[in-house]
């Protein structure tokens, strides 16, 4: 290959770059621009959705077929096309939309995560798209962050487990041979993206080397070990070093330490940002030098092909070695061979008959059912259909009650999640699902507060709370659907984590009627509700459950299904108390005597792993086969879980470990294993088995090396507790305990 051809393979441009703008009524490729982009500059990758909004399979097939034919004719190498399929088939009309990442984490079901990604892969391939920018395995540890809903939760182990399952669902069992029904996955966002110090998207973090290695790297490590083919880089900086210029993280940790032969792609325009935003480069050309030498393989520019010209100059000037170019191009070509693009660069959409099928819809509905968390219930729920007298009425109110956009969140049909209702007119909002489940004659609708759909995501119209209060006079119970409208990335930044003033006022005035309130939280991040939660008889957190979230919620509220989800993050109570479940012991102490008396108290609204059910579960007989262990042992824990209530239910069983004494202050506790029981009938008991490697109880010491120290560990599952003892110290010379 010529140098120009090699650099072209390292370039990714947005689909808009090759659009014929003279055609106004639909998207059309420009032959002249294709000649420039593919014919002259040999560009090897295109991304994104035409005109920023989901299109049908036939249109996708036509677009990608034209691009591939041009690419094969001009270069002899197929294009690798990529899209953000974040929660199902988000950019192909009629596709199946699953719950967002936080919801999938809340299921604590590996099976559901893998199946959701498998279905997404199948439906993505129906549009001839071979590559998706998913899963997101950032740790969502900053509740103000506008992207917390994209990942599986705040915990490293949970993200690692679910990230692995998602990769296997997307790619299948053989990452070297992606078949017709699967696609290449792209892990996002490498790494430490989810804890911006300011709480705002694409702003710096300050993560210690120990925490980066032990927690933020862990999901990427697990997914890479199970075949993840590509990685997208974090847009921000950590400790002053932008990730796109971090040789240690991109090359040493990822490529050399793991001997990983996959491909690293930038996020949107982030090489340019090294110069224009981060000021560590003197020009765009200098930024390209830094990024490519650090280990970037493909540049998502995405609107300019001058990357090709500038990188060529850098090679000719000796500022980027040819071996780095060759390494990057091998990785790009390896991806294209592994995805089968050379053999079959496009498909016939008719060969995918299950696209948008009832079978896929039921999987998405079940995922939604298992992802919605019951946080409070004084006996108001369930609202049994069979027990409803003919005169009983349910008031459905709030700005989230009649919106598919709110149920889906961002990355849904469009980037910001707008127009979902237009593309899926037959899907059920919460209101429509409640009317269908309980009968329209039993449901009153008066929103009281509505969003301004023509404005920014956070803007609301002038409230009409009095109308909702008047409607409550005729109701026996109120279902108040509050939270957020959809948003994505930086536009979703906020300055106040509290629920909006109008929505809080709506709940207060409805509570004054004396009617019981079921508060339904439909939001992308935990908005503070400490002032209104005591006014509510029940609280349900549905997060962003997708197109079938309204149906799933109605199933649960009616008692037709039982709640089985647990929070994948800590729900804060106060603006200035944004702690995590694995906090340090000094964050929770009694009053200290002396000249300075103070309390340090961890106060949260609901804890990580909290979730109620219509039944109750009792834990007993927690046992372990190795009460004394070493790093080389596999500890097998068993615990009996009994349904002690009156209805059938499932229980996520979470195993936590606490290192009682360590050379660095240990975390309060860490999730080390989890599984979900089968459906247990009242009185039924199941013995759950949970396995933990002794080496997985190690931590990263102050010297940056992994260490497992002799001493006691407190193990807890439900109410059951036992102690295990490590008998021998072990330190690892390799960075990943291999």
Report what the structure shows.
- This protein is globular.
- It has a 6-stranded mixed beta sheet, sandwiched between helices. A 5-stranded parallel beta sheet has the order 4-3-2-1-10.
- The model has no long low-confidence stretch (mean pLDDT 96).
- A hairpin with a 5-residue loop joins strand 25 and strand 26 (706-708).
- The protein contains 20 helices and 29 strands.
- By secondary structure, the protein is an alpha/beta fold.
> What is the helical fraction, as a range of percent?
25-40%
Main sheet: strands, sense, barrel: 6 strands, mixed
Share of residues in strands? 15-25%
What is the typical, i.e. mean, pLDDT?
96
Count of distinct strands = 29
Q: Rounded to an integer, what's the Rg over CA atoms?
A: 26 Å
Class by alpha and beta content: alpha/beta
Distance between the termini: 37 Å
Spatial strand sequence of the major β-sheet: 11-16-15-14-12-13
Q: How many helices does DSSP assign?
A: 20
Give start-end ranges of low-pLDDT stretches: none
List keywords for this structure.
738 residues; globular; single chain
Question: What's a quick, concise take on this entry?
Answer:
This protein is of the alpha/beta class. The protein has 20 helices and 29 strands. 28% of the residues lie in helices and 18% in strands.
